[in-house]
Design goal:
The protein is mainly β. It is built from one helix and 24 strands. The longest helix has 4 residues, at about 140-145. The relative contact order is 0.13.
Length: about 280
């Protein structure tokens, strides 16, 4: 008898990211359609889905930190309280340089801030003649792409600082971010959406840990294993840093977006943006 298919539920139009938050429930960013203000946060309680917060534009990464949900909403970083009230934590004018496409969010280990990736606009990375297809790495279009992507730290007090500057060709389009190490010495693990590089950043030093995981969206770490999803390929991988081996945990999704690593229940909870679902993938 084959393995049972992972459980799936419908959660709304264009879910992008998910985390556990108030009362241990799941909170999902819903990009919605193309109308400004139609973005939302939905709460999942068992199999019941309801609107928790409204009035966002196109929320993406989300994290629960310092008693708030914090999400990246285009060029804003917003926080949401336990009553679902949305307020702006930092706007475009608060950043030290122009921002284009704030994407993933990860809580700092001290619980006082989030790290936010500015991927820069994704359109130039994609071949318009095909569906969700990145330009070949050796193509003229790839060589012409900018290297504007960077990472910020945004405190719950609204203060913003640049952490990972733009310009490194190994991290031109940072998408997923997670934090490891200690409060005194944090290490960021990041995924480059275009190249598929998975890199670490510590003390101003960038190191490539593995590569080839193109369309990298979510990145999470557990011990020597790095979990990565691919928005373009609809896959989820596990990369073992000890053996150097990368294996496919799940494929067949349309757009595997910013999953939540649910350590307590030993699963990945994966939004499929185009399908409008969450997939609950058990881990070994």
């Amino acid at each position: 008898m084959g393995a049972q298919a992972p459980r799936q539920i419908k959660v709304g139009e264009q879910p992008e990211s998910v985390c556990r938050g108030f009362d241990g429930k799941l909170y999902v960013t819903i990009i919605g359609g193309d109308v400004p203000g139609d973005g939302a946060i939905h709460v999942v309680d068992g199999d019941r889905v309801s609107v928790f917060a409204k009035g966002l534009n196109a929320p993406k990464g989300i994290a629960f930190v310092g008693g708030f949900l914090v999400t990246a909403d285009e060029t804003d970083v917003c926080k949401i309280d336990a009553q679902g009230q949305v307020s702006r934590l930092a706007g475009a004018k608060d950043f030290p340089q122009p921002v284009e496409f704030l994407n993933d969010v990860a809580a700092s280990l001290d619980g006082r801030a989030v790290y936010v990736t500015d991927m820069s606009l994704p359109g130039p990375m994609l071949d318009p003649s095909k569906e969700r297809t990145l330009w070949a790495l050796d193509s003229p279009q790839a060589r012409a792409l900018p290297a504007k992507g960077c990472v910020y730290r945004v405190g719950l007090d609204g203060k913003v600082s640049l952490v990972v500057p733009p310009g490194d060709p190994r991290l031109r389009f940072p998408n997923g971010v997670t934090v490891s190490g200690t409060k005194a010495q944090e290490t960021l693990i990041l995924g480059d959406f275009f190249t598929g590089n998975i890199v670490s950043w510590r003390n101003g030093t960038l190191e490539v840990l593995t590569t080839g995981l193109r369309g990298a969206d979510a990145v999470e770490v557990e011990g020597d294993v790095i979990y990565v999803s691919s928005w373009t390929l609809g896959k989820v991988w596990a990369h073992d840093r000890t053996t150097g081996r990368t294996r496919v945990l799940l494929e067949g999704l349309t757009t595997a977006a910013d999953f939540f690593h649910d350590r307590e229940h030993r699963q990945l909870i994966i939004p499929d943006m185009i399908a409008g679902t969450l997939t609950f993938l058990p881990l070994e």
